[in-house]
Task: inverse folding
């Protein structure tokens, strides 16, 4: 059975990559007009003719626009297979690959840390409230708060936080990931500066996802509470704290961990809009700047890269689930 | 005939139909509050937009950067370009809701149809649809939307709605398929088959009534997700350039530095409106959930 499951997951992964590559390749060609229109427009905007003609010729050659679409597609696949995502138009000699490589650590770092923090906090608080919430007014009041936080999108909270904590009461920097003129090194001063810049974006993500983890853990604990083994533990006369942590919490943690794994799969895609609002130099900000600068190869390349990495992470998670939770069945048809 | 199967299993009438769906919905407080807020806001915006007229939207119609509490169109102040923020809001709200409505309709209808087909008929169609479905679930749809929107610059509101809707079918399709798989083994479907109903009659007459409550809740979810996608795309600069949506209001406010110039009412208006909209839609969703799943009531 495991082999069938494995094959199915691999087919889905391959289909995801194939469809994304095809869409990313053909989408620009379905739009009426000159595929290099963006390039010439950008050049006209910059106002420079310096090497502009050569660049257009280079692109005509690179895209093979004199050849048939099928030939172009094969050539594109060959480039991709070599890990070549092309050149940026806005900062010409830089390759798309380099730009993406600079951006990814910021996105992944921010989202990995915030996801882990909010998951841990949300699970613990949600567990406690679900266990004894009906006895305390304060704990009960947390439920609507979590509901509101969960409904608000990240970037809406981000705007409010920038206004409150960077403008009105300027405790944190307005934007960026580190102060300009403070080159990235491993010195304590730089790390401190980096953390100071990361706090606001992180806070906006943590608060919103905290709401979600809280709500899901709360309902998991509520349903575990009615299980027979809890009654049994109570009948044995175990101390309440031990019943909570060792019996209820541990059992509710497994589905919660599955949720964590699922959301880790989305980490590469980052918090695109949040990064834009904070000017945080991750993938979202890169894509935002490329949209502004009509830098189409960068948009194309980074989107493709994100989609493929999300699919890859999902594949790895899918394959490791059955190892984590033996209750998962491998059957395909009944899902 | 003493049967182990309860009668309503054989006739296939979902339990919620007995006291009347409308009555049950209207007695659900969350649903009523949510729907009332959404409808009231929409009516206010439509009527208010008519009263203010298109002139108030023009830049330079008023003095720039006027604060809150002015008379008439200046109730919510003006932008750095001298447009009335109230007039922008009155245009943005119906537009954002139109995006939500169209995208949710497309996503839910297409998703439900594909899910019904692949769940009920199975076979090769099912195999292909299931792979396609998993692909769409695996891919972060905002990225594809960014790709498309950055190519088709100057998206209008309807075009944007259709595009968002095209990425909203995967989740309903999967859920409907799973439900159909379990429903089709139930006795009332077997009874229908034995009494000679055709496949289409069973799908529409026997399965649909059971799926409708779930589809309603999913519709509201898709509605929220579409407005979310719209505002996300707009803040990235990919929204409709000629029309106002709530996302575009935020985009222009941020673009003209409303945060740094302390014109807070400019960005706070769409931000508060989005939060209100999301909260009331979420209440509608919770209400529908409780109606379709009575066990949730009172938790």
Result:
């Amino acid at each position: 059975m495991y082999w069938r499951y494995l094959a199915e997951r691999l087919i889905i992964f391959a289909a995801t990559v194939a469809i994304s590559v095809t869409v990313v390749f053909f989408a620009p060609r379905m739009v009426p007009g000159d595929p290099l229109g963006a390039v010439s427009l950008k050049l006209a905007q910059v106002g420079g003719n310096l090497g502009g003609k050569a660049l257009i010729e280079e692109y005509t050659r690179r895209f093979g626009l004199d050849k048939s679409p099928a030939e172009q597609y094969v050539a594109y696949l060959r480039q991709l297979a070599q890990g070549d995502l092309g050149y940026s138009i806005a900062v010409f000699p830089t390759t798309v690959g380099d730009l993406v490589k600079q951006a990814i650590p910021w996105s992944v770092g921010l989202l990995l840390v915030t996801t882990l923090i909010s998951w841990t906090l949300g699970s613990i608080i949600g567990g406690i409230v679900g266990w004894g919430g009906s006895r305390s007014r304060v704990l009960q009041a947390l439920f609507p708060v979590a509901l509101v936080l969960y409904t608000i999108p990240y970037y809406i909270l981000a705007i409010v936080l920038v206004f409150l904590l960077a403008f009105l009461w300027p405790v944190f920097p307005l934007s960026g990931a580190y102060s300009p003129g403070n080159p990235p090194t491993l010195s304590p001063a730089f790390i401190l500066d980096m953390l100071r810049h990361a706090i606001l974006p992180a806070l906006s993500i943590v608060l919103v996802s905290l709401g979600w983890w809280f709500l899901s853990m709360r309902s998991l604990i509520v349903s575990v509470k009615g299980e027979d083994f809890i009654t049994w533990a109570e009948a044995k006369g175990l101390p309440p704290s031990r019943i909570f942590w060792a019996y209820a919490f541990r059992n509710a943690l497994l589905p919660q961990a599955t949720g964590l794994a699922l959301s880790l799969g989305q980490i590469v895609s980052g918090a695109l809009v949040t990064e834009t609002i904070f000017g945080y130099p991750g993938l979202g900000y890169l894509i935002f700047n490329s949209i502004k600068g009509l830098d189409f190869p960068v948009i194309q390349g980074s989107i493709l890269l994100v989609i493929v990495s999300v699919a890859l992470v999902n594949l790895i998670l899918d394959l490791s689930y059955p190892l984590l939770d033996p209750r998962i069945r491998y059957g395909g048809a009944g899902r | 005939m003493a049967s182990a199967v309860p009668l309503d299993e054989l006739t296939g009438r979902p339990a919620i139909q007995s006291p009347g769906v409308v009555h049950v919905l209207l007695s659900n407080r969350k649903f009523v509050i949510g729907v009332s807020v959404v409808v009231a806001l929409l009516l206010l915006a439509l009527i208010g937009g008519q009263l203010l007229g298109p002139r108030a939207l023009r830049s330079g119609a008023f003095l720039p950067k006027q604060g809150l509490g002015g008379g008439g169109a200046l109730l919510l102040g003006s932008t750095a370009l001298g447009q009335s923020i109230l007039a922008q809001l009155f245009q943005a709200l119906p537009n954002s809701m139109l995006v939500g409505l169209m995208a949710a309709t497309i996503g839910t209808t297409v998703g439900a149809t594909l899910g019904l087909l692949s769940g009920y008929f199975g076979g090769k169609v099912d195999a292909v649809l299931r792979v396609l479905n998993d692909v769409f679930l695996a891919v972060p749809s905002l990225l594809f939307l960014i790709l498309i929107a950055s190519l088709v610059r100057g998206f209008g509101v309807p075009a944007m709605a259709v595009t968002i809707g095209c990425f909203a079918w995967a989740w309903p399709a999967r859920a409907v398929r799973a439900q159909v798989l379990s429903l089709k083994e139930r006795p009332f479907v077997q009874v229908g088959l034995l009494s000679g109903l055709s496949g289409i009659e069973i799908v529409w007459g026997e399965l649909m009534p059971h799926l409708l409550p779930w589809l309603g809740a999913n519709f509201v979810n898709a509605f929220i997700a579409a407005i979310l996608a719209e505002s996300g795309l707009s803040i990235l600069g990919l929204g409709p350039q000629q029309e106002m949506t709530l996302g575009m209001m935020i985009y222009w406010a941020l673009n003209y530095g409303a945060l740094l110039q302390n014109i807070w009412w400019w960005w706070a208006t769409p931000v508060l409106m989005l939060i209100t909209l999301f909260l009331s839609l979420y209440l509608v969703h919770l209400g529908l959930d409780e109606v379709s799943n009575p066990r949730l009531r009172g938790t």
User: Anything to note?
Assistant: Residues 104 and 222 of chain B are 5 Å apart (CA to CA). Chain B has a mean pLDDT of 84. Residues 85-121 of chain B form the longest helix (37 residues). Chain B touches chain A through 39 residues (CB under 8 Å).
